[in-house]
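User: Can you predict the 3D structure of Cell shape-determining protein MreC? Sequence below.
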Amino acid sequence: MCVISVLLLTFSIREGDAGIIHAARSVVMTVTTPVRYLGSVIAAPFNAVGNIASNLTASPATLSDLEAENEELRAKVAELSEAQATAERLESLLGLQSTYSLQSTAARIIGESGDAWSRTVTIDKGSADGLAINMPVCNAAGIIGQIIEVSPTTATVRLVTDENSGISAMVQSTRAQGILQGQPDGTLRLEYVTVDSDVKEGDIIVSSGLGGVYPKGLPLGVVSSVDRPDNASYYTIVVTPASSETENNEEVLVITSLTDEQRATDDDVASSNASPQGTARDESSTQDDAQDDDAAASGDGSSSDDGATDAGE
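Assistant: Sure. Here are the predicted structure tokens for Cell shape-determining protein MreC:
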């Protein structure tokens, strides 16, 4: 049998691809391929059942080891996800600190008020860390409140949405100024903005720096609606706070002092008492349009004069 196999192999090599042996092999492959494929399809369920049976018959020690390994992997995934989220929040805080050149110290929120009459949070640093009453507190989105109580190791922060909170604020684009006041229902309103000021939905509200407590220019929120009641002297302006969810403010910055650039200037104070407040929106564009209109009117007049002269001739 071995000699026959050697002879067939020798003839197959010598005869090339067009020989009898190669032709016979092709016929056999053509006939047997469907049979082999059908056999594998039929055997697949039985192989799966065999694998299941093997798993079911695994020893309790093996199953226990696998469960422990899965639990360990899940714990590591959760730990890495939390570390990544913390790193992203801290990076955002550092970005705010760098952008506004804030002199500040970091703290973590460890609790919040449990009643419906006040909106406060507790942070894990206090007077022993240099914190004091009235210091502003912010997260990566902007100002969230102000310290109202302090102990050696903790401090209480009144949130901007508390009805006792009031912050000197202004419209970023037009510099129209008012007081951002918390409401009993947890919303914000920009009060005392006169109806001759330029304010519209979508405007960004920032701190004005008046009063010397909050640094000038930090985000506070966005105008969500502007209403002008009949015969009223001031708009009713509703503002969506820059940070709506305190549970996302795990890490915060406490602003410990202000630089001269972060305080309101004499011009800012004068502007707050001016009427109308702030400046008109897109003032340069308005002036350009007026010049274009004057030029167009002048051109129309020249054409009319030329027409009259022609008629006289």
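The chain has two domains: 2-53, 103-272. DSSP finds five helices and twelve strands in the chain.
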